[in-house]
């Protein structure tokens, strides 16, 4: 069954609002984590997740994925942790906390997400969203140049713009550069975004997804990348 994997910036109605906060989101994070760029990122919390058996997976460093989380919502388990309501967190990250206040109950998990240098977050699915109520959105804050990408069921995308994805589909993240990647991760309810429902998690689908092979499927281009391709094609036609 063909399912939509990725939503681009123009398909997410709050995307421009989120992107308008990028400078402050980034600055407040770096003010707290002064060792992020060149140091050990000592306050980052490693995320442990079950990985799928995938013989084609690249070697994965320990602690590839780290978070500075602001809210954790796992409805099926009855868990709601709202760190963003703590006075010290609100003082530290006023912009991010204001966003979570603004979205209120429409927001699931949220926080700063770090992909370590020369590391791979191996293939997995999101346990907190099994009914597929939320769309997971990545807001790019610091994206190093070089070989760095995300894949959902074999379709690759980069972080040169905001996007969202169905995290009930198998996905992984790859940073083959010598610098850390930083995004602001936020889950928002599909109905709040005006998006149609997608099926809940399907363990049989997960089992039958083929191993990831780079380039096997067309890359998902952002709108600005699509425009660049069209311009190159137009120049080629004119020169011919």
Descriptive notes:
This protein has helices at 15-20, 22-32, 87-92, 94-103, 190-193, 203-208, 223-239; strands at 6-8, 45-46, 65-74, 79-82, 107-115, 119-124, 134-142, 148-152, 155-157, 163-165, 171-175, 181-189. The model is unreliable at 52-60 (pLDDT under 50). With 240 residues, it is α+β, with helices and mostly antiparallel strands. The protein is globular and about 65 Å long. 25% of the residues lie in helices and 28% in strands.
Secondary structure elements and pairings:
Layout: E1 6-8, H1 15-20, H2 22-32, E2 45-46, E3 65-74, E4 79-82, H3 87-92, H4 94-103, E5 107-115, E6 119-124, E7 134-142, E8 148-152, E9 155-157, E10 163-165, E11 171-175, E12 181-189, H5 190-193, H6 203-208, H7 223-239
Antiparallel strand pairs: 1-10, 2-3, 3-4, 3-5, 5-12, 6-11, 7-10, 7-12, 8-9, 8-11
Summarize the structure.
Helix content is 25%, strand content 28%.
Which key features would you list for this structure?
Jelly Rolls, eight-stranded antiparallel sheet, four-stranded antiparallel sheet, 7 helices, alpha+beta, 28% strand, globular, 12 strands, 240 residues
């Amino acid at each position: 069954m063909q399912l939509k994997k990725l939503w681009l910036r123009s398909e997410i109605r709050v995307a421009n609002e989120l992107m308008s906060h990028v400078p402050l989101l980034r600055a407040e994070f770096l003010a707290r984590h002064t060792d992020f760029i060149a140091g050990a990122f000592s306050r980052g919390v490693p995320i442990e997740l079950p990985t799928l058996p995938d013989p084609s997976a690249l070697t994965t460093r320990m602690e590839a994925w780290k978070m500075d989380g602001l809210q954790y919502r796992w409805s099926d388990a009855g868990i709601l942790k709202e760190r963003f309501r703590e006075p010290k967190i609100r003082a530290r990250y006023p912009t991010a906390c204001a966003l979570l206040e603004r979205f209120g109950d429409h927001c699931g998990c949220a926080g700063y997400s770090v992909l370590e240098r020369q590391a791979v977050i191996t293939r997995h699915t999101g346990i907190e969203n099994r009914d597929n109520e939320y769309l997971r959105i990545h807001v790019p804050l610091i994206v190093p140049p070089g070989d760095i990408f995300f894949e959902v069921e074999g379709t690759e995308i980069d972080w040169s713009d905001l996007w969202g994805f169905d995290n009930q589909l198998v996905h992984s993240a790859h940073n083959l550069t010598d610098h850390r990647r930083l995004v602001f991760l936020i889950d928002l309810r599909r109905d709040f975004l005006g998006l149609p429902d997608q099926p809940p998690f399907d363990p049989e689908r997960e089992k039958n997804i083929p191993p990831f092979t780079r380039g096997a499927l067309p890359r998902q281009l952002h709108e600005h990348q699509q425009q660049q391709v069209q311009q190159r094609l137009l120049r080629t036609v004119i020169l011919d």
